[in-house]
Amino acid sequence: MKRPGTGIAAAAAVFMLLSSVAAPVFAVGDALKSRAAELTSGPAILGGGVMLGEPSGFSAKLWFAESGFAVDAAVAWSFVGESSLYMHSSGLFHFSSVETEGGQFILPYGGVGLTWRARSTSSLALRIPVGASIFAFPELPLEFFLEIVPGMQIVPSTEAEFGAGIGARVYFPLSRSR
């Protein structure tokens, strides 16, 4: 019999290991760093918006511009199986950016995080998002994103999960506190 909490501890250990090993490998291009610097006078930018797909709802992302690391979160509604309130949070590592001649950026990313679904029997799952952030309008702080998310439910039982979505976020500047 599995001890309660071992799945959560394993997921946390995997996240911490991936964060410490992978963070230096993923670097964001200088052009995108300067674009991020235009959006913020502090160390990070905060975006908020919507996502459509499975699940559909509201999305937020705190992006640490210098490192390319971000934390995203969502509150949404899942329509798979027993409909439920859905929440997730993930650490995302952005790979080097691709810049077009018109000043648009495409940033592939990967990450790891946790999902919680509130249903008659709540569940907790490990999620592994893989996607791309697209900044299509150089003059607007607007990100479009698309992702696929394989995962594994770890509580109350073990089973595979899969999600996908598209969305958009508007970024707001964060200032350094003085």
Q: How would you explain this protein's 3D organization?
A:
With 178 residues, the protein is α+β, with helices and mostly antiparallel strands. The protein has a single domain (6-172), classed as Beta Barrel (Porin), CATH 2.40.160.20. Helices cover 15% and strands 54% of the residues. The chain has 2 helices and 10 strands; from the N terminus they run H-H-E-E-E-E-E-E-E-E-E-E. The protein has helices at residues 6-22, 30-39; strands at 44-54, 56-64, 69-78, 84-94, 98-99, 105-118, 123-127, 130-135, 142-155, 159-173. The chain starts with 5 loop residues before the first helix and ends in a 5-residue tail after the last strand. Mean pLDDT is 81; it is low at 14-29.
Set down the secondary structure blueprint:
Elements: H1 6-22, H2 30-39, E1 44-54, E2 56-64, E3 69-78, E4 84-94, E5 98-99, E6 105-118, E7 123-127, E8 130-135, E9 142-155, E10 159-173
Antiparallel strand pairs: 1-2, 1-10, 2-3, 3-4, 4-6, 5-6, 6-7, 6-8, 7-9, 8-9, 9-10
The N- and C-terminal alpha carbons lie at a distance of 53 Å
Helix/strand/pairing category: alpha+beta
Query: Could you report the average pLDDT, rounded to the nearest whole number?
Result: 81
H/E series: HHEEEEEEEEEE
SS field, number of helical segments: 2
For the secondary structure, the number of strands is 10
- From the 3D structure, determine the CATH topology: Porin
CATH class: Mainly Beta
Global morphology: elongated
The description of the largest β-sheet is:
10 strands, antiparallel
Please state the second-level CATH architecture: Beta Barrel
**Low-pLDDT regions:** 14-29
Helix content estimate:
10-25%
What percent strand? over 45%
How many structurally independent domains? 1
Rg computed from alpha carbons, rounded to a whole number of angstroms: 17 Å
